[in-house]
What we know:
Elements: H1 15-27, E1 30-33, E2 47-50, H2 52-56, H3 85-107, H4 118-123, H5 130-149, H6 163-173, H7 176-188, E3 194-200, E4 206-212, E5 223-229, H8 236-239, H9 243-250, H10 256-265
Antiparallel strand pairs: 1-2, 3-4, 3-5
Helix pairs in contact: 3-5, 6-10
Amino acid sequence: xxxxxxxxxxxxxxxxxxxxxxxxxxxxxxxxxxxxxxxxxxxxxxxxxxxxxxxxxxxxxxxxxxxxxxxxxxxxxxxxxxxxxxxxxxxxxxxxxxxxxxxxxxxxxxxxxxxxxxxxxxxxxxxxxxxxxxxxxxxxxxxxxxxxxxxxxxxxxxxxxxxxxxxxxxxxxxxxxxxxxxxxxxxxxxxxxxxxxxxxxxxxxxxxxxxxxxxxxxxxxxxxxxxxxxxxxxxxxxxxxxxxxxxxxxxxxxxxxxxxxxxxxx
Length: 266
């Protein structure tokens, strides 16, 4: 019988990995006495633990209710060599806006949750009141994922990572090509909709992981550095069922300077 916990991507944690995660979480946590409802939806004071480094590393996760759609840092057609303008307009202005609207609606009648940051909500969605748990997981995750996605793309992107991130990738995978192959392979193999991520795991090393739907690595105790959306609305107008072509085109617009800034804050 397999008694190892199952992660959102369907993988399992070994006993050794469980000990690593537990040790890292204990070494870097933010304790919040927030009086939130427990898993049953009943109110009561309790203490949550959140990975402090995860939240500190992501200024995009600092937003609180009411949430708003962040502007694109470039024109809709700026990434056209990889992502067409119509897809960018629909993806940002409709899909991302929809996550924002639905998250605000879910929290409208929960003032005790409105002081929490987007990162705090998403990192601990399992501990939220039952009435909002699924909405925060899906729409809060969707908002955060996209808030991290847009700034990590640039019309001047592509090339190779820089600084300490470049060194960490070399230490973990040996070469940039090996890393790209690992990331592209994992992301391309996602069944249905989801995201591929480069993350810093609880042991402090880089790792490639995937999440289903709009789940974010924060809820796994991991710090996202780079993410790729492989929901069909992110690529279907130009690439149809050629997800692999979209993933390869993604590398031409990655803003490695932004990724380095995130990594440097970890």
